[in-house]
Design a protein that fits this description.
Length: 487
């Protein structure tokens, strides 16, 4: 078999693992909490440690790969992710699991940043479309299968199994990468932005730590507001630093582009609303409704089913329907679905959530296919890779901060240990996330309006790859959603 197809197998294997682990862990949280005697803040960190390391390292990993070799960095990412998975499966206490999840996030960030460039180097012409289409399909399937597959493994095996299953897959993918994938580098790799990397990482960790600590100890605890304020100050310093250095990893000037800014806000709102509240929905289904991990996962899969339906439709209509009329209404549907879920009481059946699951899932399916392609399509070609990375970073930051903010609101209700208090807290979270989704939807409709594309030099092959991803990065999409289409 030609080396390019081995490259595709290696990339798809790595992509499937790293995206699966974003959602597969959700349904295992009650089992993890009981097995390791973890606190509620520990549960939040198990999810946030992964999301934060992905967000902090994604942009830097792409630059490292361009400079040092994409095959080399992808192999390193696979090794680190596989090792992190093994350590997660062997964890004996919450601290070891959280640290191991951070290791997973490091490997995942490297793999995610390098995978698209590897495919672009290996495939040309029509075959490139096939490769990116497969990549997009696997990305969608991994996210959708997470709750069900996680529930199946936890119920029939152990929560440790959701991590240990990655080990043989990672080892096989690593062997393929080392033996069958060609090396490639960028002729004009950027300089590493260590200042930006350090400030972004420190700011995000301090900010999220403060929010989680506030949920555990209350806002009267001096450390919590201090960390939140300190994290915000460091993130502000990050913005000023990136605006002044010669080779920033995050070109702040891109946010002056109305459509790019709108796509970034929508990415944050999408992950900070529906995907952030999934943890609390799973806890409700297992702790209040007393369903098994598999039963909870199958119920959460209703959201994935709705998402799959509209993602397929959105992909086929994207060449005729402007992005603003997919992303905007999609987020409005997500917000509406979350509002439909409100009104739970201690005696409610889980069926109260079904209509909201369907509506929010249908909305999410409209949002995801055009979102990344919209961010890429309105920037100069030489900024396409950075634009894609920034959009993904906003997604992960939205997830991490969303889980932390919701936790700080929910923790006092959870401490009461009654079904009535739990559902009252969950109701509050529904209103918060619905507000975020609705605001994001209105922002998308207002901001994702046609603009004249900036003139720039022709794209290099690597830059053209990132533009081509706009056509295929979402599952089941057939073409790019053009923001400059007629509205």
């Amino acid at each position: 078999m030609d080396k390019k197809w081995w490259t595709l197998i290696a990339v798809l294997s790595g992509t499937f693992m790293l995206l699966l682990d974003v959602t597969i862990v959700m349904v295992a949280q009650p089992e993890i909490q009981g097995s390791l005697r973890a606190s509620f803040s520990d549960v939040q960190w198990v999810l946030d440690a992964y999301a934060l390391t992905l967000a902090a390292l994604l942009l830097t990993s792409g630059v490292l790969a361009d400079r040092s070799g994409r095959k080399r960095l992808f192999a390193i990412g696979l090794s680190v992710f596989t090792l992190g998975s093994l350590l997660c499966g062997m964890a004996e206490d919450p601290q070891m699991l959280i640290a191991s999840r951070s290791v997973q996030g490091v490997g995942g960030a490297i793999m995610f940043a390098v995978s698209i460039a590897l495919l672009g180097h290996s495939f040309q012409g029509r075959e490139r479309g096939v490769a990116f289409g497969a990549w997009g399909a696997v990305a969608g399937i991994a996210t959708a299968l997470g709750p069900v597959l996680g529930g199946l493994i936890v119920t029939d095996w152990s929560w440790r199994g959701i991590f240990l299953v990655n080990v043989p897959v990672g080892v096989i993918a690593l062997a393929i990468t080392i033996g069958r994938v060609d090396e490639s580098k960028s002729a004009e790799a950027s300089h590493l932005d260590w200042a930006g990397f350090c400030l972004l990482t420190a700011g995000l960790v301090a900010f999220v730590y403060g929010l989680i600590r506030a949920g555990e100890h209350g806002w009267t605890d001096a450390v919590a507001p201090g960390c939140v304020a300190g994290g915000a100050a460091v993130l502000t310093a990050f913005v000023f630093t990136e605006a002044r250095i010669a080779n920033p990893m995050f070109d702040i000037s891109l946010l002056r582009n109305r459509i790019f800014c709108g796509a970034s806000i929508a990415a944050f709102a999408m992950n900070g609303s529906l995907y952030a509240i999934l943890l609390y929905l799973v806890l409700y289904l297992q702790d209040v409704q007393h369903y098994s991990a598999l039963q909870a996962g199958l119920r959460i899969a209703i959201i994935s089913g709705g998402q799959f339906v509209t993602a397929t439709i959105a992909g086929r209509l994207s060449h005729r329907v402007p992005a603003r009329w997919q992303v905007g209404p999609g987020l409005l549907l997500v917000g509406t679905g979350l509002l439909v879920m409100t009104g739970l009481t201690g005696t409610s059946s889980w069926t109260h959530l079904i209509a909201g699951f369907i509506v929010s899932g249908l909305g999410a399916g409209l949002v995801n296919p055009p979102l990344a392609s919209t961010a890429i399509s309105v920037v100069p070609p030489q900024r396409a890779g950075m634009a894609s990375g920034i959009n993904t970073t906003f997604r992960q930051v939205g997830l991490a901060t969303g889980i932390a903010v919701l936790g700080s609101v929910f923790a006092p209700h959870a401490a009461a240990h009654t079904a009535a208090a739990f559902t009252a807290g969950l109701d509050d979270l529904m209103y918060i996330t619905a507000g975020l989704a609705l605001a994001g939807g209105l922002g998308a409709i207002l901001l994702l309006r046609p603009v004249r594309l900036p003139e720039s030099a022709p794209a290099t092959p690597d830059e053209a790859v990132m533009n081509h991803v706009a056509q295929t990065a979402a599952p089941d999409s057939k073409s790019c959603a053009r923001p400059d289409a007629a509205s």
